[in-house]
Amino acid sequence: MADQETVLITGATGLLGRNITNHFLSKNFKVIGAKRSTSITFNHPDLSWIELDKLLEFDPKDFKIDFVIHCAGLVSYNASDKDELFKVNKDITESIAKWARSARVKKFVYISSIATLGKNSDSQIINENTPWDDSDFTTNYALSKRAGEKAVQENGAKGVNYIILNPSIILGPAELSQSSAKLFQYVLDQKPFFTKGFINYIDVRDISNVIFKLLESNIVKEQFVINSGYTTYKSFFKQLAEKLNCKAPFIAVPNFSLILGAHLENLWSKFKNKEPLLSSETARIAGNKYIYDSIKIKNELDIEFHTLEESINYSIAEMKKAGYIKL
């Protein structure tokens, strides 16, 4: 690649966006980070910042942008957030894709989710081609991200060289109130319960590396599942607990109990005027036993991903350095 190409990264202060930003800075890119007005930024000579809302007001011809990586999005499984989910994950994604098309970027990478993939499989294994069935259980989050994918593909038909990535749960360092770091907090709080479902996971460093390699390649208008592996929640929490020197969750909760607990949680939260920690959607997701297959991206780029142990060790070490975890 030519020296000092420029990449615009939305959501650049989040767990994934920050890691991608640092990865591309290390590869001699100029980075423009698009963020919310309240987000806390960091400094680098080749890094500049812009508020996402203001970005869309500017003429894209005023910017020299080679690539756009759209990480920004909203994750929520509360029914009351449906309108906001579609506004952020569909409408804003569509606006950024149109903006990128006007800017004539070389490639547009959209970070979607495994939640958008079809479940109509004869086995537990899900990939990019698994058929979608409207009778599948789908969350508002999944539907909004799927609508975002469709908006990107429609702009692809008009000239945008897009790539859609569907990562599983992203493991990496973050504040304990953010993203997958909440799972670390759950174990640190020594909660006793675990579900019988599977957790599919991917190291944040692997996603950054995949994106970099895809931008180097001739691959366009493709979709890839990004998943390192899977395990049971029981095993996942046990490994976390061993590294965090605390007691692992030890009481298995059947799915029907989770759903009942979600309804009670919502009633209690309404009474207390607080945000519910558990919803009927998250309760059902926790019981899933799907396995997501990344063979397509592994074959395309000839890569392997970090193991779960490596991801956990890295996340904990970095969160200790940042002061997020104090043991």
Automatic annotation (TrEMBL):
SUPFAM superfamilies, alphabetically?
NAD(P)-binding Rossmann-fold domains (SSF51735)
Any idea where the NAD-dependent epimerase/dehydratase domain is? 7-217
Gene Ontology, cellular component aspect: cytoplasm
Concerning Pfam families, the annotation shows: Epimerase (PF01370)
A GO molecular function annotation here is:
aldehyde dehydrogenase (NAD+) activity
Q: Which PANTHER family match?
A: NAD(P)-BINDING DOMAIN-CONTAINING PROTEIN-RELATED, PROTEIN YEEZ
Which protein is depicted? NAD-dependent epimerase/dehydratase family protein
